[in-house]
Structure formats: C-alpha cells, structure tokens
Amino acid sequence: MTQELLRRRLPEEPKKLLRSAHDLRHAAWALTVDHRRAKAAVQDALGPLRRRAAREQLASMPVARLKDVTDGRLRLPALERAEIETVLQVLDTTPYELQCLPGIGPQTANQIHAAAGQIAEAAERVASIRIGLDRADAETTALVVALHLLVDAGPDVPRAAEAAVEVDERLSPLINMAAPAVNWWRRLFSTRHRREQAMDALAALAELLREERARGTPGLLAQASVDLLRPRVSSDEAWIDFELRASDYYALLAELAALDSERDPGEGFLPDDITRRVKEQPLDERHLRVSLRGYQSFGARFALAQRRVLLGDEMGLGKTVQAIAAIAHLSVTEATHFLVACPASVLINWLREIDARSALLAHPVHGPDRADALADWVRDGGIAVTTLDVLHTLRVPDGVRIGMLVVDEAHFVKNPDTRRSRAVAAWCARTQRVLFLSGTPMENRVEEFRNLVAHLQPALVPDIRRSDAAMGPRAFRAAVAPAYLRRNQHDVLVELPDVVHVDEWEEFSSADAAAYRRAVASGNFMAMRNAAYAVPRRSAKLRRVVELVEEAAANELKVVVFSFFRDVLATVDAALGERAHGPISGSVPPAGRQAMVDAFTAEPGHAVLLSQIQAGGTGLNLQAASVVIICEPQVKPTLESQAVARAHRMGQVRPVQVHRILSTDSVDQRMLDLLQGKSALFDAYARRSDIAEASPEAVDISEQALARQIVEEEQLRLETSRPA
Q1: Can you tell me whether residue 96 is helix, strand or coil?
Q2: Which part of the chain is the Helicase ATP-binding domain (predicted)?
Q3: In what order do the strands lie in the sheet with 558-563?
Q4: CB-based contacts of 634: which residues, under 8 Å, 6+ apart?
Q5: Structure pTM?
Q6: For 351, which of 462, 478, 546, 584 is 20 to 30 Å away at the CA?
Q7: What angle do CA 656, 662, 666 make, to 5 degrees?
C-alpha cells in the first residue's frame, strides 16, 4: 500500500493519528489508576472500623466461646479465677501473661490465645460498619472523607472506568502494530507484510478513534479524571454532604465493603479469612535468587500458611518457583531437609531451577548413584529430588525431619491403588508440610481431587461435593479453599511477562543414549541433533512433549510444536494420534500452509499444530497458540525468535509459553554453550525484531563451523571416532 493510498484511507495525518491514539490510551490508563486508588482509600479507612467493631463484639463475648474453636478441649477455670471473662480480655493478654496464671502452662496459653485470635478474625470479617452523625469520630470521619471523593464524582465514574479498560485493551495492540508506519527507520527495515500490517493498523485506529469520539469517550474519561483528582474536602464538608445524600454513601459502602470487587485475582478468589491468613504469613526471601511476582509470593505464602495444600496454577505460572520460595523460607526458619518427588521427565528441570533460583543445595536422588546422593543429603541437608517411581525405595533415618514434601505433577498419584500413590501417602503421613503441584484443572474431576486431598487434609474430603463443581470453578475453589489454590493465566495476566521461556532438560533413556553414541561415532551432526527421538517408545524428549501437550489440553490451550526435522514431527504426530494439524513443511505450498493454520485456529479450545521451524517460523500468523514447543535447539537463534514471534504478536490475548526440549550432556548442551558467545549480540538485535528478521546473518553462527566443533568435542568426550 502506498503512502498516497494510506492518506486517502485516513482522516488525518498518520503521526497525528497515532499521537491521538496514544493520548486516549494514556487517559484510559490514568483514569484506571486514579479509580483504583480512590477505592483503595475506602478499603484502608474500613480496616480500623472493622477491627473496632470486632473488638466491641468480643468485649461482650464470654470466654466460654473459646471452647467452640477447640472442640471443647480447653479448660478455662484458671481464666475465670483470674477474672478474665471475655474473649477480648484474652486477646489483650499475651501468651506469656497467660502462662503466668496458676494452672496454665505454655502450650495451653498458646492454644487459648490462638483460639481468641481465630474468633477475632471471624468477628472482623462479619463486622457491620455503620455511619452516623452520632459516630463522628476520627476513624468514621476518615471513611466518610474517602467515600466523598467517589460519591461526589458521580455515577459516571464507574461507567468511565469500564470504558477505560475496554479502550486500553482495544488500542494497545493496534498502537504497537502501527508504529512502523510513522517511523521511517523501522519502516526501512520492515518486511512488506509488516508495513502493510502497520498501515492496516493505522486504518483500524482511525476507525476506533472515530467510534470512541462518537460515543463521547474522550470527554467521559477526561471529566472522570478531573472529578477523581479533586482535593480531599475537609471533614466538616464531608459530613455535611453525607447528611444531604446519605443514601448514596450507604449504597457505595455496601458495594465496596464486600471486598469481592476489589479482590486481587492473583489471590485465587479465596475466602477472606484464608486470604487474610495468607497475607499475614511472612516469607523470608534471603535464600532466593529470583524476584517473585505478586501472585507467586501469594502462592508460596499460601503453601506455608495452610501447610498441606495443592497448588493448581495453570501451566506457565511458575509453580516450581513458588515451591522453591516456600522451601527457602522454611530453610531459614525451621528446617534443613526437604524432599521433592516428580516424574523423571522433569527431574533435571527441578535440579536446575533450584540451583538457579535459590542458594539451596540440590541432591539428585536418581539413577545408579542415588544411594550416595541420598547419604549426602542426609548428612548435609538441602533438597533431595527424586522420582515418583523411586520414592518407595528411599530409606531415610527416622531422625531426619522433612521440612516439606513437594509432589510435582501430583495428578499422577490420583489413583490410590498404585504403588507411587501408596509411597506418596506414606511420606505424607510422616511429613507435616506437604505441597502438591498440578497444572491440570481439578474443578471437573471431583473424584480425582478427593483422592489427592485425602493425602493432604483428610477431614476436608467429606465436604467436597459434586454440587460445588456444578456451580462453576469459583464456587468449587471457594468450597475447597483450605487445600486448593488455582490461578489461570487470564487471572494474573497483568503480572505475567509477554513471553515465558522454559528450558525443559531431559536425561537420555538408554535407547536415546545408544542412538546418540552411534550418531557421534559416525560424525553425523544432524543425526546427533535428533537422536533423542530415534526410538519413540523410549524417548525421554518425546515423553515430555506429550506431557506438555496433555497439560495444555487440560487447560484448553492451543499448542504449536516446532522442529527442524520432518521425521521428528512425524514421530510427534504418531504419538499424539489424530489430535494434530499439519505438519507444515517446505513442500507444502503457501495456500496449503494457511489452510492448516486456519483449521488449527478454528478449532474450539485445545488444538495442536506441527510445523518445521524454517517453514512455519515466518510469514504465518499463529496468535491462536499460547504454548510453543521447540523440539531441539536451533543452530540459528533467529529461527527460534521468528517462530515464537508467529504466536507472540499483537492480537495475542494470553502470554506465550515457550518450552525448549533439551538433553543433558549432549549436542544440545554443546550448542547452547557455543551460541552463548553470540547471545549478547543476538539479544541486542532481537529486541529490534525487524532488524533481526531482515539481517539473520548478523546474529547467526556458521552451521558448518559449529557442527564440526561439536562433533569433534563429543567424539573426544565419548571416546568414539568415525568408523573406518
């Protein structure tokens, strides 16, 4: 499309148009921030009033109510003799002061005080807040002043806030896509397809701005922002306004005091009491080497506060990191030995994640050296990482206390009759803190969920009913909240990076290793690269690919599987059965490739598309996919970046997960080591993806040189040589 044609399509000059779009998006963002801040001020003002109302209730509550919390186990005559008659008096007495009373020991004192604290939490949750001129104290006045800003701003503010969210969601992808059309430098290095996309985006922006102007959105946002930025009024003015329109204040208070509209989705929509307990749980991060996102910190605290739980976050949200964070906290505060049991396919990933994300020592209790590794762990402490199938063989001295047992891919132990399930049950019985991890949603698998919870909190099992699941995911999660936390990607989308890269390290099976040694001996670089798929029935890499696809299916995510090799794609296709579209390859004409993509996109929910990375990595729009699996590392880094860019592009509504399948002690490791020298330059170019796509020679290493060096190194390491 020429610039002249573009000008005929647009009502105003491109730069001015893009600037108008930026201005409207900024106005929407600013209003959203201001609205959230105003509502947060109301919540802050409600806190002291809830606590005061709870204390008033506790002041009239007889101390005998403590027995209700402890099933009648506490004996209270000592309190009555000390003239402690109400729950509030117990709450205001420290455990040390309680144990100084005749007849009360340290343990009983702690139990009494904890029971009072539980009642206080419950009272605070249900406390009703009343505003009245007869209660014009400092705390109530602070609430009235905070409410006044929203009441005075008027009923248009909520409507404006909703419009702001919609405007931001619609404008943001178009603005980013249109940028090359008004920047001559980016336009110079853009492909023709990219330039046409940018111009189409400008035309779409023009239409969107026309619609929003016709609806009066800019004026609505501007007025709402002005209203929310007004200075706070004095307490006298706020009370006078309250007298004039008390019904408006009460209506707004009823809406905001419920807290549900303000609940952070990263908290999994848990009940208030559990959310409060989790937030109060400390998390010592001194042994961590990673900054946790908000929802990840909450997940680690949930595991610590609730002690025996299932973390069911959707794949890609970092369940492993949350487990490591919980262990790291316990390693500072109360324990030295920890145990992780996982499928063999993710054991290497666990070891690498522990090493990269924490200062803790990891012991691979797996393979022929597992007895020595187990002895080292018993002696030195740290995290023992073993497989679910080896767990039943571990012999750990009774004197070694396990600070936390983590069971990854816990849905593998849903059948209580299997050996691995019995082994997990035995370890759960000897461990106070247990964390199950599973990305497979449990809301519609009630019986499986009951079996898992039986390992964790057996008392909760009778309360898990099919009727809760029938009411939908949120109702189910609320019913099982003491033992279950799940967040979906869209719940925490604002917390997530645009792309989540995960290196999936696998150990060769014996068949893989034999095929690899033959390839190395023959000096065949390409055979070395795909040797891990040579024996499909025993391929560790293939097993992990299938696991990732199955987890994506459980979460209704679309997947693209890339490989350089047609025979690898054929192997994956055979393993997946009839579920996969494609494969897209160099022999498929462009129209046929697009037809495959269209069929893949049109599938409702989960679908899989197979593609050669050099064929599907360019020219196709795969934004329906949010999971990308790369079966082996590529010699040219741009192949991977271009392939990911097919899914990670404007219009993608989910973060993209990229899983690269790698084998330890192999060509994969050697390739990554050698390509590291290019990584800094590649990153510099990759951040300007138009230049990277236009100039691959600037970032790619010579395939012949790399192949020759790797073959020689591997032959030397394995002491093989090309056959005569």
Answers
A1: helix
A2: 300-459
A3: 499-506, 656-663, 627-630, 558-563, 607-612, 580-584
A4: 564, 613, 640
A5: 0.51
A6: 546
A7: 160
User: What Rg do the C-alpha atoms of the chain give, in angstroms?
Assistant: 30
Bridge partner list, 692: none
Query: Within 10 A of 3 (CB to CB), how many other CB atoms are there?
Result: 11
CATH architecture of residue range(s) 497-718: 3-Layer(aba) Sandwich (3.40)
Distances (CA, A) of 322 to 102, 218, 340: 45, 42, 13
Distance of alpha carbon 621 from alpha carbon 643, whole angstroms: 10
Q: Where are the domains of the chain?
A: 3-45+136-262, 48-130, 279-490, 497-718
Residue 89: Cβ within 10 Å count: 16
Helix (H) or strand (E) holding 387: strand 382-387
Cβ distance 671 to 633 under 8 Å?
Answer: yes
The pLDDT of residue 431: 95
436/655: higher pLDDT: 436
The contacts of residue 272 (CB under 8 Å, 6+ apart) are: 125, 259
pLDDT category at 690 given cuts 50, 70, 90 is very low
Let me know: does 606 contact 632? Beta carbons within 8 Å. Answer: no
pLDDT at 342: 92
The 3-state DSSP class for residue 703 equals: helix
> Rounded to whole angstroms, how far apart are CA atoms 370 and 384?
10
How many Å apart are CA 306 and CA 432, to the nearest integer? 11
Q: With beta carbons less than 8 A apart as the criterion, state whether 437 and 346 touch.
A: no
Check for a shared fold between 48-130 and 279-490. Answer: no
Asked if residues 356 and 289 have their Cβ atoms less than 8 Å apart, the reply is: yes
pLDDT band at 528 (very low <50, low <70, confident <90, very high): very high
From the list 334, 345, 343, the residue with the least C-alpha distance to 307 is 334
Distance, in Å, from the CA atom of 176 to the CA atom of 197, rounded to the nearest integer, reads 11
Q: What top-level class would CATH report for the domain 48-130? A: mainly alpha
DSSP per-residue letters across 419-459 = HHHHHHHHHHHT-S-EEEE--S--TT-HHHHHHHHHHH-GG
Angle (nearest 5°) at CA 612 between 674 and 615: 100
**Count of CB atoms within 10 A of residue 271's CB?**
14
User: Rounded mean pLDDT of 513-540?
Assistant: 93
353 vs 682: CA distance, rounded Å: 24
Q: Quick one: angle between helices 246-257 and 235-244, nearest 10?
A: 100
Overall size of the chain counted in residues: 724
Instruction: State pLDDT tens for residues 277-322.
Output: 999 999 998 899 876 777 889 999 999 999 999 998 877 678 999 9
- Whether the CB-CB separation of 564 and 613 falls below 8 Å is answered with yes
Decide: 368 and 360 in contact? Cβ < 8 Å.
no
Name the amino acid, one letter, at 22.
Answer: H
Residues 6+ apart with CB under 8 A from 378: 337, 396, 397, 400
Residue 600's nearest CA partner among 581, 616, 574 is 581
In the block, tokens 């990759």 appear at 686
Residue among 261, 317, 294 at smallest CA distance from 488: 317
Counting other chains too, the contacts that 198-201 makes at CB distance below 8 Å and 24 or more residues apart are 199/1, 199/6, 199/9, 201/174, 201/175, 201/177, 201/650
What's at 214, amino acid-wise? Answer: A
Is residue 584 within 8 Å of 617, Cβ to Cβ?
no
How far apart, in whole angstroms, are the C-alpha atoms of residue 330 and residue 254? 40
* CATH architecture for residues 279-490: 3-Layer(aba) Sandwich (3.40)
**Distance, CA of 211 to CA of 194 (rounded, Å):** 25
Residue of 106, 116, 113 whose CA lies nearest to 68? 116
